[in-house]
Amino acid sequence: xxxAPRITVEELKRRMDAGEDFTxxxxxxxxxxxxxxxxxxxxIRMPLDKLEENLPRIPKNKPVVAYCT
Length: 69
Fold this sequence. Notes:
- By secondary structure, this protein is of the alpha/beta class.
- The protein is built from three helices and three strands; from the N terminus they run αβαβαβ.
- Strands 2-1-3 form a three-stranded parallel sheet, with no helix packed on it.
- The chain starts with 8 loop residues before the first helix and ends with a strand.
């Protein structure tokens, strides 16, 4: 499987500010969610260990950005 391209936080913000249409998946674990002040608007939150069962929630008609730590 090919490695997914990576982008920086700054690149993500630039793309969001430009109005680019994509889905953000927040894959941080629940502890990281609780300890963080960062909440991405409209992100779909799911722990990485539940990714497979949540695949139907991810739109298939636009790019996806996964946010994890």
